[in-house]
Amino acid sequence: MTRILGIETSCDETAVAIVRDGCDIESNVIASQIDLHARYGGVMPEQASRAHLRAILPTLEEALASAHADWSSLDAVAVTHGPGLAGALLVGVNVAKGLAFAQKKPLLGINHLEGHVYANWLDAVEAPDFPLVGLIVSGGHTDLVLADAHGRYRRLGRTRDDAAGEAFDKVARMLGLGFPGGPLIERAAQDGDPLRFRFPRAWLEPDTWDVSFSGLKTAVLHGVRDLGIDTDHATPQERLAKLPVADLAASFQAAVVDVLATRAVRAARVFGASRLVLGGGVAANRTLLKTISERADVQVLCPPPALCTDNAAMIAAAAYFRFRAGERSTLALDVEPNLPIA
């Protein structure tokens, strides 16, 4: 039995977890900063870093207590060292290095994007098979990857501009819905007509797996202005009162989902994947999961919503397979804000 303590502080969630054998969650504690950043309409990096400093030790103590764990029962310390906000990452990495040094435990630096892939191993009835195609969609990242073994990735495509989650946040602000945009757009779209507004899909070149959402975002902006809203000065209340918010949300969501589903399903088919796995906060969107599942020729796996968003259990899960392969990080481990998955 191998128990790994994971730490995640890449953006606006302070999280600590203990995971056994890469799949069994013994504790998974998350201190959210949503209320802090909602007043700004987005994540404020300096505020995020300060909030991590305040929350990291209480979160660590709660995770250890919830798992009934002491340091003698833990085998390693894993931490996200990129990608993410530099100041936020520094909090987690420095705490992890201090703990590993003080407790004489191996240290493993983990890629945040890899963690989202490995959320599919957590509490899974059956572990995913290789090769697999992974669609990682979050506020800061949209990546399509091919994995043929643990820790072996090829990045097929990525966003050329806004990440899917970033587009959700920006459109939610246009509609007066608030932050974070993903769940608010999804909720509003439930009562909307996805065919009312024919927003564009950017398919780019025939030979690329990349995606783009900036044109879609601009199309929504023009649509909102055409409906009589001054996007520079209108209050959220005015937007909600005057706009067909449900139809706009549903039409925007349909465009994002169509592009992501088309790319992911085609990649799984072209590269002969045995599974298609989803990860990241936008993967919590049930319309995205339903659409991909209906179109795919292979089994589609997606963590429950609580494990799609940032958490430390996914970091510990990814670390387990690297730990088992003999990988270790040194105390010279540093943050890499722009770390790619491959």
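The above is record 1. Record 2 follows with the same two-line structure.
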Amino acid sequence: MITLNVDLGERSYPIFIGQDILGDPTLLSPYIAGKQVVVVTNETVAPLYLEKTLSGLTDYQCETVILPDGEVYKTWEGIMPIIDRLMQKQFDRRVTLIALGGGVIGDMTGFAAAIYRRGVNFIQIPTTLLAQVDSSVGGKTGVNHPLGKNMIGAFHQPQCVIADTNTLNTLDERQLSAGLAEVIKYALINSREFFTWLSDNMSQLVQREPEALAYAIEFSCQDKADIVAADEKEAGQRALLNLGHTFGHAIETALGYGNCLHGEAVAIGMLMAADLSVRHGWINNDVQQQIGALIQKAGLPVSVPVDTDARITAEQFLSLMAGDKKVLDGQLHLVLIKALGQSFITADFDIDKLNETIKAFATA
């Protein structure tokens, strides 16, 4: 088992990465303050992993909340079953919520923990690659709004993260690829060497080779842990983690949550960031093609899907991006690319070139 640490002083917490560690009471118990626990999961994950998780919680007053599966349910109304159960059982401030599932469950459970009694503890047990390498670490929690993704939420750090890589064996190929988009993101923002390693080993990752997956997860989590420790609430360099996300969130919102998976939208968004970087002369076409080739190797789309009922116009792109969380004082800030392994945050881009990129990717 690999143990990493998110260094946030008194609020520091470990990330445990390993095989067959789900439900291990020696990992769970030190991070549960009281005797009350609520495990939140969904209809897909519950039949697979709920029983094993509960086997490590026999010493606690334990409740379960099983939510419907899908990004479409990540709403204010969607977290009410969690709040309702907490209220019905009169659970106190020492209750611990456990998020058992992917990024949607992690975000919703974390947000419920942030607002119940003005904040209670929670633990992340991510069961998808995307959640293991990204969303379970860093304390971003929240829900979506029809006008924008993740616009309602809070920074609320978990007590620990337990990533059992065996859970990836039950992921479908599309969900696995969606997680690989976030892995590629870390290479683009911070490490040319990791980009080269991914290019050489992507087939092993797609085939779920355990050692390759373990290395990719460890690298991604360590990178995010370091960035979060330096900038917990995204006042500076943490915004680099948004590479591809401003474009991607617009795609998710326009097409309808769940029609384009988050990782798929981020992959397209990273290509849009590369396209805009080429138009400014910061990278050349060869770099953009290398990025596109790696994204395709991961089984991810390189253009906005058109097999849904919805389309996204250039005007929608601009409107949704204007309402993004990365807008500060009326200025849109984007993460763009200077080289493989070197990204940067800027508001100093040519709006005409941005329009050209958007028109190249819009579907209507």
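The CA atoms of residues 164 and 328 lie 38 Å apart.
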